[in-house]
Amino acid sequence: MGVILLLLFAATLFVLYIAIRRAWGPALTVGGLGAILSLLWVVLYALLVEETSLGQAIFGGIVVGLGFAAVVVIIAVFFRANQPSADITLISQPNQEEQARDRRDADSQETE
User: Fold this and answer.
1) Rounded to an integer, what distance in angstroms lies between the CA atom of residue 81 and that of residue 22?
2) Relative to the CA of 43, which of 19, 94, 99, 104 has its CA 20 to 30 Å away?
3) Which H helix or E strand runs over 28?
4) pLDDT at residue 90 tops 80
């Protein structure tokens, strides 16, 4: 049962990150829902698997569940805010290996 609760916790964090990055809803609403689910999974894990008291389980849920959810929300919002808009065309520069290969090709053509 414990593995299932931990998998649900991990899946909640993963879906929370994707939901915020893809803007499936307001970040505050999605983050709040994800935080509540994360807290729930950690509290249930603490109560059912670790056999702790209700107070310890709630404290652990707040610290771990809300802590991880907050970090996921912060990271997702940061990357969404710094994502280039669709109208910007990214131009990549050739890397050093491509430049060296191009110089060798040019040198070999000059010697022929």
Assistant:
1) 11
2) 19
3) helix 27-48
4) no
Asked if 38 and 7 count as a contact pair (C-beta separation under 8 A), the reply is no
Q: pTM to 2 decimals?
A: 0.73
Q: What is the pLDDT of residue 107?
A: 74
Q: Which residues contact 20 (CB under 8 A, 6 or more apart)?
A: 27, 30, 31, 72, 73, 76, 77, 80
Q: In a 3-state reduction of DSSP, which class is residue 25?
A: coil
Q: What is the maximum alpha-carbon separation in the chain?
A: 82
Q: For residues 3 and 45, give the distance between their C-alpha atoms in angstroms, rounded to a whole number.
A: 9
Q: What φ, ψ does residue 41 adopt, rounded to 5°? A: -65, -40
How big is the chain, counted in residues?
112
Confidence of residue 105 (pLDDT cuts 50, 70, 90): confident
Q: What are phi and psi of 50, to 5 degrees?
A: -85, -10
Percent of the chain topping pLDDT 70: 92
Residues 6+ apart with CB under 8 A from 62: 39
